[in-house]
């Protein structure tokens, strides 16, 4: 993959590329693109960028009177698009037009600022998200006339409701079944092979997840903040396209079906010295989980800001349908070793391995904007270190089974139960983000999410007819 502007030009020539997809991410986290002729790339444009964006048409960007914007390619992200011969894609940075500099609401800019800030503090961080998703055969939606009512139908070959005559995965029994019960292994492997061969990924595992209906997971090798966020957007792009090639629909929404597990993006995080030579979260003398005092402060910072972080890492109205007890999704703000009912756990598969020491933050889901989510997680962790925030004692029992009195005794608080509640928390607890998140992106983000919540609250849920029709 290219590593410089000059490498990009050579890449385009060597691969006989005719078209290039310029890709970027809006404030809510959706990927956008514009396709331009490869002949537009020359020694000047690869350094100055392409004036091809009307920012007023992108959520969270600009007003109509300041809409001319420039897209500058990130060389390391240029790759072939395997399903469209002669086409390459590249992720871009967003700049104001007229030479006014970097666009401050470009989510990738926030990720880059977070990386600069951590280096100024003497740190570097690594992120490893577990990407879960569903692959359905088809989705039937009826939302064209909401005044008449709305509804949807999921068609999924392995689901109990399908009556396909083949193998069925029962609710909550989808974890690691071997083929032919796992009917989507070939689709996942095609996505994995595409990521490895064309997009430079190192894949650690892929498997069927707990839910029925085609829930899967792909885990890739951890990396630095902005690069990991690029990879999240790339993985979603590839999985959706591979599924579409098979006439199927891939979705990363947190809770697409009732009565089974939702889709998370459990995020592994570790903090190292700036040169990447020492894991600051590892202490071989710690008897509990080989976690250092610095590691405990990291946990303390994330737990302290967990309710505000929810607005960024659990970023949709649908996220809070996933965050309910009984479906392996975290609800309670606590930490532990190997305990998946806690919002943070310290994985303990191995002992005495410095590079493996990390925490797993289980609240995020893939509806978030990964550039903003990873930056916010880092800032909460650093705030914990700077303020020496103690996380309290770990909780080594199933928190879902504790009585309210016992949780209160242990000081265990709950995550917000709705996006609106999470946004309230973010508005009252955002100082820790301000060294990296400028006020304009925070204000814009909150306004967009408030509008999203307001809009969806106006639509009656189909099940409300069942409960309230006779009232």
In short, what is this structure?
The protein has 471 residues and is α+β, with helices and mostly antiparallel strands.
Features of the shown structure:
ATP-binding; alpha+beta; Creatine Kinase, Chain A, domain 2; six-stranded mixed β-sheet; eight-stranded mixed β-sheet; 471 residues; phosphoprotein; 13 helices; 2 domains; 18 strands; Ubiquitin-like (UB roll); metal-binding; ATP binding; 20% strand; glutamine synthetase activity
Characterize the biggest β-sheet. Answer: 8 strands, mixed
The strand count comes to: 18
Identify low-pLDDT runs: none
User: Which superfamily, in CATH terms, is the homologous superfamily of the largest domain?
Assistant: Glutamine synthetase/guanido kinase, catalytic domain
What is the CATH T-level topology of the largest domain?
A: Creatine Kinase, Chain A, domain 2
Number of domains: 2
Distance between the termini: 62 Å
The CATH class name of the largest domain reads Alpha Beta
Specify the helix fraction band. Answer: 25-40%
Count of helices?
Answer: 13
Please, what is the average pLDDT? 93
- CATH architecture group name of the largest domain: 2-Layer Sandwich
What would you call the structural class? alpha+beta
- Sheet-strand content, in percent, reads 15-25%
- Overall body shape: globular
Q: Compute the gyration radius: what is it?
A: 23 Å
């Amino acid at each position: 993959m290219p590593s410089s502007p000059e490498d990009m030009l050579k890449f385009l020539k060597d691969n006989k590329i005719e078209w290039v997809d310029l890709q970027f991410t809006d404030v809510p986290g959706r990927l956008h693109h514009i396709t331009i002729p490869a002949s537009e790339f020359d020694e000047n444009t690869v350094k100055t960028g392409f004036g091809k964006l009307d920012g007023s048409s992108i959520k969270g960007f600009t007003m109509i009177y300041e809409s001319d914007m420039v897209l500058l390619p990130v060389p390391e992200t240029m790759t072939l698009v395997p399903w469209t011969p002669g086409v390459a894609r590249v992720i871009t940075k967003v700049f104001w037009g007229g030479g006014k500099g970097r666009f401050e609401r470009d989510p990738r800019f926030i990720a880059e600022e977070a990386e600069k800030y951590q280096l100024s503090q003497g740190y570097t961080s690594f992120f490893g998200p577990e990407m879960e998703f569903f692959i359905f055969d088809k989705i039937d939606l009826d939302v064209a006339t909401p005044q008449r009512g709305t509804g949807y139908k999921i068609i999924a070959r392995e689901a109990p409701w399908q009556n396909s005559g083949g193998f069925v995965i029962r609710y909550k029994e989808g974890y690691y079944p071997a083929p032919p019960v796992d009917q989507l292994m070939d689709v996942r492997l095609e996505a994995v092979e595409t990521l490895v061969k064309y997009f430079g990924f190192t894949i650690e595992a892929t498997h069927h997840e707990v839910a029925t209906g085609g829930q899967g997971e792909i885990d890739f090798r951890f990396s630095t903040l902005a690069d990991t966020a690029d990879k999240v957007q790339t993985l979603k792009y590839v999985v959706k396209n591979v599924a579409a090639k098979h006439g199927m629909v891939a979705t990363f929404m947190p809770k697409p079906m009732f009565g089974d597990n939702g889709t998370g993006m459990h995020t592994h995080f570790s903090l190292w010295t700036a040169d990447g030579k020492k894991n600051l979260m590892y202490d071989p003398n710690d008897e509990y989980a080989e976690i250092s005092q610095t590691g405990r402060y990291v946990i303390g910072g994330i737990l302290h800001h967990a309710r505000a972080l929810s607005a960024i890492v659990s970023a949709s109205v649908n996220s809070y349908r996933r965050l309910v007890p009984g479906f392996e999704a975290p609800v309670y703000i606590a930490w532990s070793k190997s305990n998946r009912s806690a919002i943070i756990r310290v994985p303990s598969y191995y002992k005495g391995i410095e590079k493996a020491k990390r925490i797993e933050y289980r609240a995020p889901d893939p509806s978030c904007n990964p550039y903003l989510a990873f930056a916010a997680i880092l800032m909460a962790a650093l705030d914990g270190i700077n303020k020496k925030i103690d996380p309290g004692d770990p909780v080594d029992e199933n928190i879902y089974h504790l009585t309210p009195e016992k949780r209160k005794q242990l000081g265990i608080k709950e995550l917000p139960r709705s996006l609106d509640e999470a946004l309230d928390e973010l508005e009252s607890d955002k100082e820790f983000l301000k060294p990296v998140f400028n006020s304009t992106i925070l204000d814009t983000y909150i306004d967009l999410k408030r509008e999203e919540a307001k809009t969806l609250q106006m639509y009656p849920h189909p099940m409300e007819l069942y409960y309230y029709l006779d009232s």
